[in-house]
Each structure stands twice: as structure tokens, then as C-alpha cells.
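pls design
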């Protein structure tokens, strides 16, 4: 299993590294490296470069262990993007580990800045994405298989097996951005007006208020 995990990480990293110059949504790099200075008060499109860097800036061990899936969704994402892994700043790539409890779900969401590709390392998942023409593409994937979600499209993963599942995900952006559909609509701050959502979903205001209460 350890060898399978390493193969997944290597395959995803190589694929997106090769694709980055032509497909990445991030700006092209202008120097060899630019480790993100996350503490800098300067605000730019990305992160300014840290002055003093070491090999540790290009290392991240956070994907080795399963995350805690004890939450309403039954899943957890452990991100290896620029916010937790400063060495990927300006490189146009990032990764994540996603763990799912039995019946767990990575709810419908989008990544506005990146395409996502997943490699299943454990379990069986139902995955899918929806195009702008409202066409659903879905199938089951299991250990050793790969599925890709095009940039910006709503997509999801659901554990359909009888044991926990996990995937390694890779993105062609240092910070892909994630917008969960339900959370965006029902837990925004300040809140989206109830009557707006009621009209959009063709239900009563009371129904929307009941859903909002579940996201508090």
C-alpha cells in the first residue's frame, strides 16, 4: 500500500508538472524559485518571495496520515497548496489527500482556478462532474484508478464502499480555490437573502431558513 501511495503522488506530480507551462491558470514563474513569504504584509496576486530559503521549504509531510473524517460530510481534505506548502509558490501545482468515512462525501463544489485529477488509493467511490449544459458525467472508481474533473465545473465524490476510502488529488494551480455549493449558498457572510434562495429553488422561505439553520 505504501508503494501504491508513492506511485500515486509521483504520477500526479509529474503529470501536472509537465502540463503546467501550457495549462496552468497561474502566471508563469519569472525566476527559479519563489518560496512564499506567508507572513509578509505585502498583498500581490500570489505571495511575495521569502528571502532566506532551505530545502525544508520544498518538503511537505502532511499527506502521510489519514485525516479525521468525524464531521457531517464524513470526509476531510488535507491540502498541500501554497498556504501549507510555501515551496510551490509560482510553480503552478499543488496536491491534496482526501479521506472518506463509510458513506462519506466530498460535497458538490468547484475549483475556479484549477483542473483536479484524483488517484484512488483506498476504497470505492462514485465520482462525477456536471457541465455548463447540465450534463452529468459519473462513474465508480476504485484502487489504482484515475478520474479528472475539469476546471471550474461542479463535481463530487461519494464513498460507496463498506470501508474507508482515500484519494490523492493534484491541481494545476498553487492555490486552486474551493467553493462548496451548499456552504456558499446557505452559510455566506452576510447571508444570501432568504427570498432570493427561495425563488431560485422554488420553495418557501421557511424551507430555506430550515436549511440555513443546519449550516450554522
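designed seq:
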Amino acid at each position: 500500500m505504501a508503494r501504491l501511495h508513492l506511485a500515486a503522488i509521483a504520477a500526479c506530480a509529474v503529470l501536472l508538472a509537465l502540463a503546467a507551462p501550457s495549462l496552468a491558470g497561474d502566471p508563469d514563474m519569472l525566476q527559479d524559485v519563489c518560496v512564499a513569504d506567508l507572513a509578509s504584509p505585502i498583498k500581490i496576486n500570489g505571495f511575495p518571495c521569502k528571502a532566506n530559503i532551505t530545502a525544508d521549504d520544498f518538503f511537505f509531510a502532511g499527506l502521510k496520515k489519514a485525516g479525521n473524517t468525524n464531521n457531517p460530510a464524513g470526509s476531510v481534505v488535507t491540502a498541500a497548496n501554497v498556504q501549507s506548502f510555501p515551496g510551490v509558490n509560482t510553480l503552478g501545482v499543488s496536491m491534496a489527500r482526501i479521506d472518506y468515512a463509510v458513506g462519506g462525501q466530498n460535497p458538490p463544489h468547484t475549483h475556479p482556478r484549477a483542473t483536479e485529477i484524483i488517484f484512488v488509493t483506498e476504497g470505492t467511490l462514485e465520482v462525477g462532474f456536471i457541465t455548463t449544459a447540465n450534463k452529468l458525467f459519473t462513474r465508480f472508481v476504485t484502487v489504482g484508478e484515475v478520474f479528472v474533473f475539469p476546471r471550474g465545473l461542479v463535481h463530487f465524490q461519494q464513498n460507496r464502499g463498506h470501508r474507508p476510502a482515500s484519494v490523492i488529488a493534484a491541481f494545476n494551480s498553487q492555490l486552486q480555490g474551493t467553493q462548496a455549493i451548499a456552504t456558499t449558498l446557505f452559510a455566506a457572510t452576510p447571508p444570501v437573502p432568504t427570498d432570493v434562495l427561495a425563488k431560485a429553488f422554488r420553495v418557501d422561505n421557511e424551507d430555506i431558513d430550515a436549511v440555513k439553520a443546519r449550516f450554522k
